[in-house]
Amino acid sequence: MRVVASGVVSLILASIAFAGVPPRVDGKVVVMVIAQKDFRDEELLVPSEMLRAHGAKVLVASTTTQSVKGMLGATVKPDLLIKDVDPKKVDAIVLVGGVGASQYWNDKLVHSLLVRAHKLGKLIGAICIAPVTLANAGLLKGRKATVWASEKARIETKGATYTGADVQVDDNIVTANGPNAAKAFGEALLRLLAKK
Predict the structure, then answer these.
(1) Do the beta carbons of residue 111 and residue 84 sit within 8 Å?
(2) pLDDT digits (tens, 9 = 90+) for 53-92
């Protein structure tokens, strides 16, 4: 992934501070899925930088490998296409939010990838409006989850118990409610990856 960050995003990244000493996750492979346009910059950049700083290999996947632009102006060139992600070769799949994330709400290819990864015991994450994709894939039924508040009914309709928490962990699925939770989301991903 190549990132060209705007001034706002640079300030966000510079402000990342860790509470305590997060665990090392050396050798873990994390795929972060972004929309083809209008992903939420800090929901990608903050967790990915945290994961890399603690030893993870982070790959960005999308429906294109051409440069895509985030809502705040960061430009990212994805590493691979979603169709080329092999869930057997990764430790986690994380869906990034932003208004563009609705692109995957009803995407059967993404649903299939998530379901296969979950069956293999992989860590699954989603932030902002992206938990709707997990709900529509059937992964939040009977689970506690959070989401951007405007989408609460969408995940409840699919059987999730909406908690309204900034970050919610239920087994090996972690959801977060938006950009202000990006750092806490990254910390939760690190803790869960360290246990795998």
Answers:
(1) no
(2) 999 999 999 999 999 999 999 999 999 999 999 999 999 9
**HSE of 77, CA atoms in CB hemisphere, 13 A:** 4
Among positive and negative, which fits the CA dihedral 81, 85, 90, 96? positive
Query: How much is the CA Rg of the chain, to the nearest whole Å?
Result: 15
SS3 137: coil
Contact predicate 147/154, CB 8 Å: yes
Largest CA distance in the chain: 41
Amino acid at 191: R
Region 7-20: what's the mean pLDDT? 47
Strands 57-62 and 29-33: parallel
pTM of the model: 0.91
CA distance 92 to 27: 12
Q: In whole angstroms, what is the distance from residue 191 CA to residue 196 CA?
A: 9
Rounded to whole angstroms, the Cα distance separating 9 from 162 reads: 29
DSSP 160-184: -EE---SEEEETTEEEE-SGGGHHH
d(CA 11, CA 57): 23
Tally DSSP H helices, then E strands, for the chain. Answer: 6, 12
Give me the domains of the chain, ranges plus CATH numbers.
2-18+27-194 (3.40.50.880)
